[in-house]
UniProtKB/TrEMBL annotation:
Entry cofactors: (6R)-5,10-methylene-5,6,7,8-tetrahydrofolate; FAD
Protein name: Cryptochrome DASH
Photolyase/cryptochrome alpha/beta domain segment(s): 3-131
InterPro entries xref list: Cry_DASH, Crypto/Photolyase_FAD-like_sf, Crypto/Photolyase_N_sf, Cryptochr/Photolyase_FAD-bd, Cryptochrome/DNA_photolyase_1, DNA_photolyase_N, Rossmann-like_a/b/a_fold
Native source species: Candidatus Methylopumilus planktonicus
Molecular-function annotations in GO: DNA binding; DNA photolyase activity; FAD binding
Binding-site list for FAD: 229, 242-246, 282-289, 379-381
Cofactor note: Binds 1 5,10-methenyltetrahydrofolate (MTHF) per subunit.
Keywords of the record: Chromophore, Coiled coil, FAD, Flavoprotein
Length: 426
C-alpha cells in the first residue's frame, strides 16, 4: 500500500528547519502540501478577525511557500473553510493514509486537531515553534515554574542549548492527482503610511515569506545590530531599533531555533555582549508564553485568567471604540492606536502602554483588547498575545500583579520631543 500523506501547514510556513515536513517528505510515496485558510469571522461590529494587514502578510508568505514547493516539483493546495470538512473531503478524494500537522496547543487550535483526528485516519502532530524543545527542559511542563525569572534561571543553570536546525528536503514526493488552482481575493491595503511605518511590509524587502525572513536575519547580522539591541529595543519607531523578527516568526516563515543558532554564530564571530544575550532573553519570553500554555491551557483564556478572585469588569463599548479608532483624547494613546490600525505593527513599548490604558484608564475588558490586537497585528501570535495581555492585566504569572503605565511619564521618557505623536496625529 502506498503512503499518501497530507501535510497541513499551520504556523510553520517554511521548508528549511521544518522537521515535521522533512519527515513527511521522507516517509511518503505521495505528498500533498495543504494550507487551509483560517476562519475570518467578525470579532467586533464589522471588524474581521484577520484584518487586512495580516491577510496581506499571510498572502505574501503563502506565495513564497508555493514558489519554493514548485521549485521542488511540488505545489501548495489552498482551501477555504472548515478545516475538518476540507481535510475530510480531500483525504477521501486522494485516499490519504496519514495527516501530519504542526502541534498548536491553544484551545481553538487543539479543537481543530481533535476534529481532524475524528476523520479516522492516522494523524501525527509535531511541536516545532519554540526555540527550546520541550523535551530538553529540565522539568516536566506541567510543573514548570510560574514566574519567568525562575524559569529562565533554570534554563541557564542547566545550560540548555537550542538544537541544530534540520535540513531542507532534497526532493519532494509527487503530488496526488488533484486540481491545485486557488483564487485569492486579498485587497492590498491603501491605508498604510509607508513613510512612518516601522515594518513596511508592502516593500519588497519586508514581504512575508521564508526567503525574506532569512534575508532579513542575515541583513540584521551584517549590520551588526545585535550589538546594540538592548539600548534601542524600547524605542517607539524606526526599522532598526528592534529585530523585527516577529512577523515572520508568527507565521513560521523562519524558526526561533534558527534565529538563536545564527545569533550564537554571530557571537562566536563578532563577540557576545549584553545586547546579543538580550535577543535570546526576549526569545525566551516567547518560549515561556508557549510553555505556560502546556501548564494552564484554557484557563489563560478566561476572564479571570489565573487569578482566583473575580475580576470585575465594567466594559464600556464606547470607550473601547474610541481606543480602537485612536480617538480617546490622550495623544500618545491615539498615536499608537492609529499606528496599529494603519500599519499592523506597534513597538513593544507602545503595545504595553496602549494595553495598560485600555485596562486601567478606560476600564475595558482586556480580552477585547487582545481580540483587537489579534485582528490587526501582522505578527499576531496566539501565545505571545494572550500571555502579554494577561501579564499587563495582572491576571497571569506576573509576581508584581499588573502593569499600569503612566502615559505622561512614558511620553516624557520615550517621546520627549513628541516626534512619534506628530507622525501619527498630523
Ligand atoms: C499587549 C501585547 C501584545 C503582544 N502581542 C504579540 C503578538 O501577538 N505576537 C508577538 O510576536 N509578540 C507580541 N507581543 C510581544 C512584543 O511586543 C513583540 O514580540 C515585539 O514587539 C515584536 O517586535 P520585534 O520582533 O522587533 O521584537 P524584538 O524586541 O526585536 O524581540 C525579538 C523577539 O523576541 C520575542 N519577544 C520580544 N518581546 C516579547 C514579549 N514581550 N513576549 C513574547 N515574545 C517577545 C519576539 O519573538 C521578537 O520577535 C505583545 C506584547 C504586548 C505588550
Amino acid at each position: 500500500m502506498k503512503n499518501i500523506t497530507i501535510y497541513c501547514f499551520r504556523n510553520d510556513l517554511r521548508l528549511f528547519d521544518n522537521a515535521a515536513f522533512l519527515k513527511a517528505t521522507i516517509e511518503s510515496d505521495i505528498l500533498l502540501p495543504l494550507f487551509c485558510h483560517p476562519n475570518n469571522q467578525l470579532i467586533h461590529n464589522d471588524i474581521q478577525r484577520i484584518g487586512i494587514h495580516r491577510q496581506t502578510f499571510l498572502r505574501q508568505a503563502l506565495n513564497q511557500l508555493k514558489d519554493n514547493l514548485k521549485s521542488l516539483n511540488s505545489d501548495l493546495l489552498e482551501v477555504n473553510g472548515n478545516i475538518y470538512e476540507e481535510i475530510k473531503k480531500i483525504s477521501e478524494k486522494i485516499g490519504a493514509t496519514k495527516i501530519i500537522l504542526e502541534k498548536i496547543i491553544s484551545p481553538e487550535e487543539l479543537d481543530q486537531e481533535n476534529s481532524i483526528r475524528s476523520i479516522g485516519i492516522p494523524v501525527e502532530t509535531f511541536w516545532q515553534s519554540s526555540m527550546i524543545e520541550p523535551t530538553e527542559l529540565p522539568f516536566n511542563l506541567k510543573n514548570m515554574p510560574d514566574i519567568f525569572t525562575d524559569f529562565r534561571k533554570l534554563i541557564e543553570a542547566n545550560k540548555i542549548l537550542t538544537k541544530t536546525p534540520t535540513l531542507l528536503p532534497a526532493e519532494l514526493p509527487p503530488l496526488p492527482d488533484i486540481n491545485i488552482e486557488f483564487v485569492s481575493n486579498v485587497n492590498f491595503p491603501t491605508s498604510i503610511k509607508y513613510e512612518c511605518t516601522s515594518f513596511p511590509y508592502l516593500e519588497n524587502q519586508f514581504y512575508g515569506g521564508e526567503k525574506n525572513a532569512l534575508a532579513h536575519l542575515e541583513n540584521y547580522l551584517i549590520k551588526k545590530l545585535p550589538h546594540t539591541y538592548k539600548e534601542t529595543r524600547n524605542q517607539l519607531y524606526g526599522i532598526n531599533f528592534s529585530t523585527k523578527f516577529s512577523p515572520w516568526l508568527s507565521l513560521g516563515s523562519i524558526s526561533a531555533r534558527y534565529i538563536a543558532f545564527r545569533i550564537k554564530e554571530f557571537e562566536n564571530q563578532h563577540g557576545a555582549n549584553e545586547s546579543t544575550y538580550w535577543i535570546w532573553f526576549e526569545l525566551l519570553w516567547r518560549d515561556y508564553f508557549r510553555f505556560i500554555h502546556f501548564k494552564f491551557g484554557k484557563k489563560l483564556y478566561s476572564k479571570n485568567g489565573l487569578s482566583n478572585n473575580n475580576n470585575l469588569i465594567n466594559h464600556n463599548n464606547e470607550n473601547f471604540n474610541k481606543w480602537v479608532q485612536g480617538e480617546t483624547g490622550n495623544d500618545l494613546i491615539d498615536a499608537g492606536m492609529k499606528e496599529l490600525r494603519f500599519t499592523g505593527y506597534l513597538s513593544n513599548r507602545m503595545r504595553q502602554i496602549v494595553a495598560s490604558y485600555l485596562i486601567y484608564d478606560l476600564g475595558c475588558d482586556w480580552r477585547k483588547g487582545a481580540l483587537w490586537f489579534e485582528s490587526q497585528l501582522i505578527d499576531y501570535d496566539v501565545y505571545s498575545n494572550q500571555g502579554n495581555w494577561l501579564y499587563i492585566a495582572g491576571l497571569g504569572t506576573d509576581p508584581r500583579g499588573g502593569r499600569k503605565f503612566n502615559t505622561k511619564k512614558q511620553n516624557l521618557e520615550y517621546d520627549p520631543n513628541n516626534t512619534y505623536k506628530k507622525m501619527w496625529l498630523n
